[in-house]
Amino acid sequence: MIALEVDNVDVRFGGLQVLTNCRLSVKAGEKRAIIGPNGAGKTTLFNVISGTVRPVAGRVVSFKRDITRSPAHVRASLGLARTFQITNLFGNLSVLENILLGLQALTRTKYVFYRMTSSFTELIGNAVALLRDWGLEGKKDHPVRSLSHGEQRQLEIILALASKPKILLLDEPTQGLSTAETGLVVPMVRSLEASTTVLFIEHDMDVAFQMADKITVLYYGSVLADGTEEEIRSDPNVAEVYLGLENHDA
Amino acid sequence: MSHKARSLAFLIALLCGLSVLPLILSTYYLGLVTGALILAILAMSANLLLGYLGLASVGQAAFFGVASYAVAIYTRSAEGAAWSAIAVGLLAAVAAGLVFGPLAIRTRDIFFLVIMLAFCQILYGVTYSWRSVTGGDDGLPGLARPDLIPGVSLDGPVSYYVFVAVVFLLVVGAFRLFVNSPFGLVLKGIRDSDSRMRALGYNVWLYKYIAFTASALIGGISGVLHAYYYGCPNPADFSLIHSSSALLMVILGGPGALLGPLAGSLIIVFVREFVSNVTDRWLIVLGFAYVCTVLFFPDGLIGTIGRWWREKSSRGRSHATAPLPERSQEESSTEFVSAGKSN
Fold first, then answer.
1. What is the pLDDT of residues A82-108, one digit of tens each?
2. Is residue A112 within 8 angstroms of chain B, CB to CB?
3. Is residue A136 part of a domain?
4. Where would a tag sit more exposed on chain A, N or C end, judged by fewer CB atoms within 10 A?
5. What is the interface pTM, i.e. ipTM, of the complex?
6. Residues B215, B43 contacting (CB under 8 angstroms)
7. Choosing among B185, B327, B328, B334, which should be mutated to test the A contact, i.e. which has the most A CBs within 10 A?
């Protein structure tokens, strides 16, 4: 079963061609890393998949459904969730309220305007339980802007997971984290259910190889290579543009 | 005291305060308070947009004016109309919200502010020029207060004050429920990050549209009360000063604070009263008050008092966290800078 297929997508910002004939096919349950130099179009590819950027050509298909023209919130309701490279949370709201927004996103509760949020005890119980699972229960009443960067990056992922997505896009989950904090995120991703399809952008090669089943290398808006760790490491093109020119130097 | 008990105590204090006023104030000052309550409702409609969606509007008078004209025009064609006239006024305001909404909510920041201003000016132009229907700059004088309940007249200043105060309390109650509901939480989420809300699966456009229309309805309630209060809708209802003082009331009171608009409108109505006895240039005083609020009390009056209260009570609980207040003050002033940018 193919969870996500990006088919010959082109994206242009004015005169700048960001993605050219970009192709990607990810099986359900697969953990896929997207790597590539700065400006390769990795985040743009995520924006195309999640629906914030519309391609000028090509298709995006998820579980046999063409979602190329679907707005972002419809894709989310189909089970697609994402995190952001630059932390994108609700800074003035408490940690608990952030999670509530994630949990109620795909329920009818989100339209209720005639009952206090505090009266939804089951929903709040679920939110607290989720925070307990990830060790943030003690911070539930703190405003998110008072959290440390590491905690915010963690919350960034928890928020995306709250709606139990089928496909999860993680845009540089370890961005700006210390080695110790990165050590917390890796098992977090690893502990996701096997059925969850995960795509993630990662600059740290070791982290990428640790978390991914397969790796896609993006270069100037096109897919340069696709494959397992071994295939990527031995690919001469990848070595040249991305991993450096060790072989030639040697 | 728990949060619930405190807000209940506050509500009872407000109720007592409002019910004592007719006994201690002269008819004239009671009239000023009535006017302030009506303006406070208008300010609440601006507060819904500014405090919960981060959209600063200087066009709330559009809904206010549409509702008051609709009441007057309808009453002229249907003599003795009471509830139906009020319904027509509110429907007209909601209709204006439904029509302007799709255009206005595509924009944000300064663009939203300007487009709302433009709507208001269009309506001002229409009412000013369309003499046969709107009476031009004379307005539509002679609107009498109807007997909403047979035998109970609203003609006296005290009875109309009671009516306005009851409506005000109902609006405050409904507003409080609305902003503390899951729907209200969604609005606060959109204020902080609309891109994240979309990614989570919220139809941001729809929420903004509904909130915009709700704010039109609240503005309409204020307009209907105003129409019966002065009995003469006129083009000044759509004026820039009217719209901007509604926004200023919110900023003075504190965006997002439930009773901020009431505090703001009482200050503005009474300052205008006293200053305009001394000088015609009371707008200068208003502008000065605005600048001072933005510079020194970015959280507004209610917001600043609320923060001071929280700090006092948290200091009472543990002395160890004594340096905390200073930091949070710093935090909120930087927050203001960024809020100012986005607004």
1. 999 888 999 999 999 999 999 998 888
2. yes
3. yes
4. C
5. 0.88
6. no
7. B185
